[in-house]
């Protein structure tokens, strides 16, 4: 156990976010530094419970009480060793994970939970600073060749596990840079891309090969893909949900994933100005989730005149309701850093129509309040109104993987939800083809993508060698405790 009285003497403390007016002037991460002494005291709040529910909350099964104790004892090198034992990329989860471990923390039953995610990012930051994150070279090569399609967190986790297991791994990515949504979806202010680049340096030094601008199914026929000894499909769930209502074809209405990638390219210096810049515009984001929040934060940094985020569901409660008891991940009202920076959030509203000007550009939305009647959103009579908008961003989630091209050419079976079907070992209906991440699971989270990549790698390694040595943190059917 860390500090036996820590949970009694220390209250939860998080690092401060930088002042809003300052952070809106740049793209950098929003948190200020946190003193090591403070962090150790936070780790010391961990009670090292007999049954650590945080393990169950974390899809990776991170050994949270172990590294909390090691952090409290200032044994940072052992702490990173225990953290890397279950998580290839703690710098991605430590910045981006919604931390279901914390909502499952036993201390959270009657007090504030341990700041697990903050301890996680501090351990890996320290490890990189100290030079402890070095290439882990395979003991022996197997002579087997594996292709991983897609370079998001699931593809990267699978590739790292398989390279370290001795296989020759090539990652094929259709974008011009490696990283999947970590690179061009998630804004810099949530995770600086330098974190991704330094991890890719480690992977290259270990022997993983990366090929960019290769759209498999278009630039590389699937016959060539199938010539590899094994394949991992990790192409994500990129088929976005649209809003086919009157006025949808007006100029100025874009998908979030059309808007965010060029903004990220501006932040990284690859582009001078985004073609969808929000400067001086009234922006409306349709969709109240994380992707929508990323659009809000990005619009503010681009200098939008106003930003409004719309959500069809009612405003969630401030605290856990009976529908989401401990240790589940509750639906509660959350204020992300992007929301703290301004704008308005409207709940229980639906968009009936986009209204345009004479030039064919969107000028407003026709909104109506709705109430939920048996799962159907019914308009409340007399509540129709116009909301000015010269830029509308659709952030209503994703329907699943893109079928055209790769998946249709391969002819893999899909499940009832349109994702790639897989068995217990993450193998698809094709003999040497496996699947990991959002492509098999549907739109999810980075922590699940890493867990799936690790588990699929175990399936591939067993298929190629007959051994059973790589960890399998999850089964394909595992779902969040909700
Ligand atoms: C805007 C946004 C913000 C998000 N923020 C968070 C967050 O804060 N925290 C969190 O936990 N989750 C977040 N998510 C969800 C998270 O990013 C995804 O669940 C995760 O990235 C899925 O990983 P993946 O490896 O399965 O796929 P992806 O990250 O989507 O990567 C798939 C890759 O495959 C490539 N690809 C697809 N088809 C082919 C092909 N035929 N040939 C070659 N390459 C191909 C794509 O170009 C892409 O690079 C966010 C999602 C979005 C859209
Ligand atoms: S990966 Fe996410 S759930 Fe797991 S310990 Fe880290 S913050 Fe918690």
From TrEMBL:
Residues 37-68 form the 4Fe-4S ferredoxin-type domain. The keyword Amino-acid biosynthesis applies. The lineage of its organism: Bacteria, Bacillati, Actinomycetota, Actinomycetes, Pseudonocardiales. The keyword Oxidoreductase applies. InterPro entries: 4Fe4S_Fe-S-bd (IPR017896), DPD_II (IPR028261), FAD/NAD-bd_sf (IPR036188), FAD/NAD-binding_dom (IPR023753), Glut_synth_ssu1 (IPR006005), Glutamate_Synthase (IPR051394), Helical_ferredxn (IPR009051). It comes from Amycolatopsis bullii. It holds the Pfam family Pyr_redox_2. Pathway: Amino-acid biosynthesis. PANTHER family: GLUTAMATE SYNTHASE [NADPH] SMALL CHAIN. Keywords: Amino-acid biosynthesis, Glutamate biosynthesis, Oxidoreductase. This is Glutamate synthase.
């Amino acid at each position: 156990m860390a500090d036996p009285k820590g949970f009694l003497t220390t209250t939860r403390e998080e690092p401060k976010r930088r002042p809003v007016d300052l952070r809106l002037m740049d793209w950098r991460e929003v948190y200020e530094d946190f003193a090591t002494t403070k962090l150790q005291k936070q780790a010391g709040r961990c009670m090292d419970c007999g049954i650590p529910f945080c393990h169950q909350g974390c899809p990776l099964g991170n050994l949270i009480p172990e590294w909390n104790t090691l952090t409290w004892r200032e044994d940072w090198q052992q702490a990173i060793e225990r953290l890397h034992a279950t998580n290839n990329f703690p710098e991605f989860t430590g910045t981006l994970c919604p931390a279901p471990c914390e909502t499952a923390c036993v201390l959270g039953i009657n007090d504030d939970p341990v700041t697990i995610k903050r301890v996680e990012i501090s351990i890996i930051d320290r490890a990189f600073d100290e030079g402890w994150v070095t290439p882990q070279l395979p003991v022996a090569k197997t002579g087997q060749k594996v292709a991983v399609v897609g370079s998001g967190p699931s593809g990267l986790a699978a590739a790292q596990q398989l390279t370290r297991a001795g296989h020759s791994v090539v990652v094929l990515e259709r974008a011009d840079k490696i990283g999947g949504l970590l690179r061009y979806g998630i804004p810099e202010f949530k995770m600086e891309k330098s974190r991704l680049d330094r991890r890719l340096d480690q992977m290259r030094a270990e022997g993983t090969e990366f090929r960019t601008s290769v759209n498999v199914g278009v630039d590389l026929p699937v016959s060539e893909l199938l010539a590899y000894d094994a394949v991992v499909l990790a192409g994500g769930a990129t088929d976005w949900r649209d809003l086919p209502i009157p006025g949808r074809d007006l100029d100025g209405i874009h998908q979030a994933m059309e808007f965010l990638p060029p903004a990220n390219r501006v932040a990284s210096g690859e582009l001078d100005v985004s073609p969808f810049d929000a400067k001086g515009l009234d922006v409306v984001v349709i969709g109240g989730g994380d992707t929508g929040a990323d659009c809000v934060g990005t619009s503010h940094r681009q200098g939008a005149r106003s930003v409004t985020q719309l959500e069809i569901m009612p405003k969630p409660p401030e605290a856990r309701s009976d529908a989401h008891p401990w240790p589940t991940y509750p639906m509660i009202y959350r204020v992300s850093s992007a929301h703290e920076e301004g704008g308005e959030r409207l709940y229980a509203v639906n968009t009936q129509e986009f209204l345009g000007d004479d030039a064919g550009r969107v000028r407003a939305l026709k909104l109506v309040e709705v109430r939920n009647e048996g799962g159907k959103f019914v308009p409340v009579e007399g509540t129709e109104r116009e909301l000015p908008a010269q830029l509308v961003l659709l952030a209503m989630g994703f329907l699943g993987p893109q079928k055209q091209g790769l998946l249709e050419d391969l002819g893999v079976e899909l499940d009832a939800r349109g994702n790639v079907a897989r068995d217990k070992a993450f193998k698809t209906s094709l003999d040497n083809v496996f699947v990991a991440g959002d492509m098999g699971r549907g739109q999810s989270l980075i922590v699940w993508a890493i867990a799936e990549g690790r588990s699929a790698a175990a399936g591939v390694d067993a298929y190629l060698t007959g051994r059973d040595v790589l960890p399998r943190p999850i089964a394909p059917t595992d779902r969040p405790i909700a």
